[in-house]
Amino acid sequence: MQGHPAVIDALNALLANELSARDQYFIHSRMLEHWGFTKTAARIAHEMEDETAHASALIHRILMLDGTPRMTPAALNVGTDVRSVFANDLAVELSVVTHLREVIALTEHESDFVTRDVLLPMLKDTEEDHAHWLEQQLRLLQALGEHNYLQSQVG
What we know:
Layout: H1 5-35, H2 38-64, H3 82-109, H4 113-144, H5 146-152
């Protein structure tokens, strides 16, 4: 099925963001594990799996629309400590939320409601799970103090 070129381009831009988020979560999960923060590392690894699923759904839809998935991720912003890991990952998620909303509006404008329906669960997951959890962790770091928060993430 031939999709609208603007929708395919927008999906490819989203794919670059999802691949970037996946890769950033991947390195961050391994860094956190290396630092000994195994609880946080496990959660970030889970986020990496979610981003991989998002990327897979986008690839399937681009192919369905007779497009060619562009597999080049956007630039990464790797943290240097737990706080910057969370902040950098949150920045990626908030950017993805904005971009998803724009692409959803485009799909509605182009009457591509099936693509919209593929994107809506991603938006919900990104807002209600990924971004919310990261915001919560940053608030906990502030409320508990970094030392107490980090101690709770070991083992």
